[in-house]
Design goal:
The structure is a single chain. This protein has helices at 9-28, 30-33, 41-48, 53-67, 73-142, 174-177, 180-199, 217-230, 243-251, 280-289, 293-315, 329-354, 357-388, 398-414; strands at residues 151-156, 159-165, 171-172, 205-209, 235-239, 260-267, 271-277, 425-429, 432-437, 444-446. The chain is mainly α. The strands form 4 sheets. It has a 3-stranded antiparallel beta sheet. A 3-stranded antiparallel beta sheet has the order 8-9-10, covered by helices on one side. The longest helix has 70 residues, at 73-142. The protein is elongated, with a radius of gyration of 46 Å.
């Protein structure tokens, strides 16, 4: 066995290592520790390259080789076999883990495939039902413009493939060709169809928040009728910034005057203030109890202008055209009465052609009642203007103006259904008036004569 190195070699190397550590500390803070008297430049040079370093390391290497000779071939073979045994055991463990993982993977694939098939099967049925109902609602909302409307709704991976027809020019995503208003109405119809499928006999409440922002006024009214006729058993909570649509909802019988709540003067600290929108007749009654006949007359006139403008639209009554777009009660009310009488005569003529005696009798009785109501309201109309405008001679009391209010209440009743509260409207087949109806069907005047199809 070779001799060990000089006894001074190890202490010398230890001292050298400590000096290097001290130099490293100095160099780690060169500004704070500069200059350091222990390490002048010549000392640093000798420290980094001692003159006898090579000889010392050579002696150490020789002693280490002598003390630890190379392994014999037998030892090397034994060591290789030992490491091979360890590797074989690790390989067997890895193979077992792989087999278990592969089985788990196969089972997971089977579960995933089964889940996807079940999901697509369930969602496919749901999408088919929703699609058919969606198409039905959209066609009903847009009438003859969308008679051929169709849609594609089916699962697509984790999403859904949704495309709609654009006037026979193929199916495309809704945002591709349809206007924003049509997209909004489409979204509403899709939501209503989905809510109907998922909440049937579970949840009766549907909440709609500003769903007509981009829908034109004509289709907003159709939405009111859609909600009334297609979802008669549903309760709605509807919020909107649009007062016109709020009034349309009331006129179509979706909500009552007492069911309207106005939120105003909203503050982040205290929240909104609440105004329960009273029915017009209640406000008129309150004004009369305070002997404020001019206020009652103003409310009656303004409310009547709004009401009969809607009547004219619903019944298709011709109103004199004005380029200013300004109409008054004197324009709307006579047009509404004349159209009512015209439609009633057409209904009587149609029922005569079918020889429906019961219907003829009911329409004759209604004609007689309407005549009396029209005559009474015409006789009382002067009192409205007399109290709306200043007149020195006008000194109406509550008792004087109450008959006027009652006459208008009876007049309103001719144009609304006593059962559902919705306004009467003309139903058309193509461009031809076919019936006068309400939302619930209690009022239904047939306008189609027997033998006439054009």
């Amino acid at each position: 066995m070779a001799e060990v190195p000089d006894d001074a070699d190890l202490p010398r190397l230890g001292a050298w290592a400590r000096d290097l550590a001290d130099l490293e500390d100095v160099l780690s803070a060169p500004i704070e520790a500069y200059p350091d008297a222990r390490f002048p430049p010549e000392q640093v040079q000798r420290l980094l390259a001692p003159s006898d370093l090579a000889e010392t390391l050579t002696r150490l290497e020789a002693a280490l080789k002598a003390g630890y000779p190379e392994a014999s071939p037998e030892q090397t073979a034994w060591d290789s076999l030992t490491r091979l045994e360890e590797n074989l055991k690790a390989l067997e463990i890895a193979k077992g883990a792989y087999r278990r993982a592969y089985v788990s993977h196969q089972r997971a694939e089977i579960l995933l495939d089964s889940f996807l098939q079940a999901r697509d099967r369930v969602l496919g049925r749901l999408y088919d039902d929703v699609r058919d109902r969606f198409v039905e609602l959209y066609r009903e909302l847009h009438g003859t413009d969308e008679d051929a409307f169709r849609a594609r709704l089916k699962p697509k991976g984790a999403g859904v493939d949704f495309a709609v027809d654009f006037h026979g020019r193929g199916t495309h995503p809704p945002h591709a060709l349809h206007s924003e208003g049509h997209q909004d109405s489409m979204g509403l119809c899709l939501y209503m169809a989905l809510a109907e499928q998922l909440t049937e006999r579970v949840i009766n409440l549907i909440i709609l928040d500003d769903v007509v922002m981009s829908v034109d006024a004509e289709h907003r009214r159709e939405i009111c009728r859609l909600l009334a006729t297609s979802f008669p058993d549903r309760q709605f909570l509807i919020t909107t910034h649009d007062k016109t649509w709020a009034k349309q909802l009331q006129v179509e019988g979706i909500v009552t005057g007492r069911g309207r709540v106005e939120l105003y003067n909203w503050n982040i600290d205290t929240g909104p203030q609440v105004n329960h929108e009273a029915d017009m007749w209640d406000r008129i009654d309150q004004a009369l109890k305070k002997q404020d006949v001019p206020d009652a007359a103003a409310r009656l006139r303004r409310g009547s202008e709004e009401f009969f403008s809607t009547v004219c639209d619903s019944l298709g009554a011709p109103v004199p055209y004005r380029i200013s777009g300004s109409w008054e009660l004197g324009d709307f009310l006579p047009a509404a009465m004349n159209q009512y009488n015209t439609l009633l005569k057409k209904a009587k003529k149609a029922e005569n052609s079918w020889d429906n005696r019961d219907q003829i009798a009911a329409l004759n009785e209604l004609d007689s009642t309407a005549g009396q109501v029209f005559a009474r309201s015409n006789a009382e109309q002067w009192a409205v203007n007399a109290n709306v405008h200043y007149n020195a001679w006008s000194n109406f009391t509550e008792q004087d103006f109450q008959p006027v209010v009652e006459a208008f209440q009876d007049l309103y009743g001719l144009f609304t259904c006593s059962n559902c509260g919705s306004m009467l409207r003309v139903a058309r087949t193509g461009t031809k008036d076919s019936a006068v109806r309400c939302n619930c069907g209690k009022v239904s005047w047939n306008l189609a004569e027997k033998g006439k199809t054009d």
